[in-house]
Amino acid sequence: MDRLILNPAQKALKINLDPNIYGTFAEIGAGQETVRHFFRAGGASGTIAKAMSAYDKDFSDAIYGKEKDNRYVTEERLRKMLDHEYKLMNDRLSRDKHPDKRFFTFANTVATINFAKTFKGHGWLGLRFQTSPEKLPNEIILHIRMHENEARYQQETIGAMGVNLIHGAFHLWEDPKELLVSLYDNISRDAIEVDMINFIGPDFEDVDNRLMSLQLIKNGFTDAVIFGPEGNNLLPAELLYKKNVLALRGSFRPVTKVNIDMIKKGYRMFVKERKVDRENLVVLFEITLNNLLAEGEIDEQDFLDRAEILCSLGQTVLISNYQEYYKLVDYFGRFTSKRSGLIMGIPNLEEIFNEKYYRNLNGGILEAFGKIFSKDIKIYVYPFKPTSKSKLTTSKNLKVHPRFRPIFDYLIYNGRIVDIEDFDESILHVFSREVLSKIKNGESGWEESLPAYVDNIIKEKGLFGCEVVKEKANN
Questions:
Q1: What percent of the chain has pLDDT over 70?
Q2: Where does 172-194 have alpha helices with state H?
């Protein structure tokens, strides 16, 4: 049955009429945009214990403490707001007097578009809430990027999303995927972007936040998400800001010795670059949504299997909707002007010179290459030799269409495309799809194609349809 979509006024009234939902609002930076919906809806005295906006920075610092970096629109500031306001509510409201109340604290810290319209604005929204009076609270924290060109429109959108978050938390918490979708009720996806979300707490113990990240892309709420080795979702703007970035795109289904050799050898070359600071470097394993959709619908378990291995290897993972490399490079350029690097195999390099990917651009392939190489970026090319009888292919003997040969030669000459020469030729025949086929069919010998311990992870957790351990575990 389809969910009935209510407007913000209806949602606020529904919350206000519930006698057991009671809490506080703290909104800084963009006014009290969320709480005003509850005041206007009627019956707010049964829901709102307190509403405040410490708009002045000195007042805000006096209440929540001063930030070391003097920034106010941060996750750390948001958490301080949630901690402070929720504690106050518990300290000041007696449970004897309110035995059936489910307490909550909503907070946001937002910077809207500037007067010159050079900065579109972003913010943090968070909710700490109980699903029953005797339970410890949960948290939902999300980061937004705003795209509207007027501050007042941005404020209205923030207010609506805040209402959607509160309503969803109390009425859809048992279905986090639907809760996430409900954030955009009555809101255009072009108006605002949610590029990070985390569900935390006793009622979300079974929620994998990596899967929630995937839902953001799948639903078109953002084009790229990042999660760390611990499986926690990371804010791209914080992770990549003014950093050198090195990325390897692949299916990693599963990650093989070739993938690890590519990243190791590419990394060694990248850190030798004069413009690269080893201490200021982020390495990303990137999987595109297009790759996840290769077999039709997204197989969430298959996605989590890939993520499980990469995280176990201590890697940071980028999931993107950027099939074309120029879009990926443009994405990195949002956050950093430092030198970036892409590691790719010969087949991927060939794809870059395929015109079909650039038909949507007025300038075609030339425009795409302008977007890529106008940035400070280098491409590190891993050789290709699918069989022992095949000829080794590198950038030096790669066949490029005569129309594009001058561009290719120009990039080679200027060192924008370079070969990885210190590679392990003994593993060039390894391909993820063949390893995966062996795992699924219960064949032997696939273990030798994978990095150390990866085969153990697959067997112990029964990843990629590996039945061996599952059968043992049931005995």
A1: 97
A2: 176-182
